[in-house]
Design goal:
six-stranded mixed beta sheet, four-stranded antiparallel beta sheet
Length: about 250
């Protein structure tokens, strides 16, 4: 490689690193029937941030999650994830972006009953083209990462709520996504288990994963570095990035 090629590659990497991981520009979303849920929303989430998106039921935060997670496309405006415009990508490319870049954690775990923790997590790699043996190796590493190396052979009904949520988080991060979206991750847990899950999310963030926690829990949101408040389809408050970066 020549010096010019090396410099060009470095410049491209620097530019990519400088881009926000999530960027919304004047996004409006209208559901069939004319129900408008988001109106002219603009938002940036930088790489490495730990963000709470907080608001009451019906505020539009779940729609915002679906747009950031590329599960929906905006009616108007632009959504960019890792520099890719969601509105311009064909369905196959959008699915590939979702599979390689985004991990999802939901309130109710969605673990397959009768399937061990190990294989529930390994199933997170089903569409990655990875062989079964390698999927299980990576699943075991992910379970150890979330503190469940001693529970890999247990079935969901043999685990506590907090442990089931840790399995769900392991499944979400087994593919090493850059962005983790956690939708009410403590909503079905007691306070002790919930605090443990939040601490795990902090640890994952410290290791480099960008995380957005969608919640109506003001106390949970208050403990995170940056808080974005959604109400009536718009962002009504956003903690300064200078605070979030500390």
């Amino acid at each position: 490689m020549t010096g010019t090629e090396e410099k060009t590659g470095t410049d491209e990497n620097t530019a990519a690193a400088a881009e926000p991981l999530v960027e919304l520009e004047r996004v409006t979303h209208v559901y069939p029937g004319g129900v408008q849920v988001l109106t002219e929303v603009s938002l940036r989430i930088e790489r490495g941030e730990l963000v709470a998106v907080v608001g009451p039921s019906g505020s539009g935060k779940s729609t915002l999650l679906n747009l950031i997670g590329t599960l929906d496309r905006p009616t108007h405006g632009v959504v960019r994830i890792a520099g890719h415009s969601v509105t311009q990508l064909p369905d196959q490319a959008l699915s590939a972006l979702r599979a390689t870049t985004i991990g999802f954690v939901f309130q109710h775990f969605f673990l397959a009953p009768g399937v061990t923790a190990l294989d529930n997590v390994a199933d997170g790699l089903l569409y990655s083209g990875t062989g079964r043996g390698r999927r299980r190796e990576r699943a075991e590493a992910a379970l150890r990462r979330v503190g469940l190396g001693h529970r890999i052979g247990h079935l969901p009904h043999q685990l506590s709520g907090g442990e089931r949520q840790r399995v769900a988080i392991a499944r979400a991060v087994v593919g090493e996504p850059r962005l983790l979206l956690a939708d009410e991750p403590t909503g079905a847990l007691d306070s002790v288990s919930g605090a443990s899950v939040v601490e795990l999310l902090r640890e994952l963030n410290a290791s480099g994963t960008t995380i957005a926690v969608i919640t109506h829990d003001q106390e949970l949101a208050a403990g995170l570095p940056r808080r974005i408040q959604v109400r009536d389809g718009g962002i009504v408050a956003d903690a300064p990035r200078a605070v979030a970066a500390r």
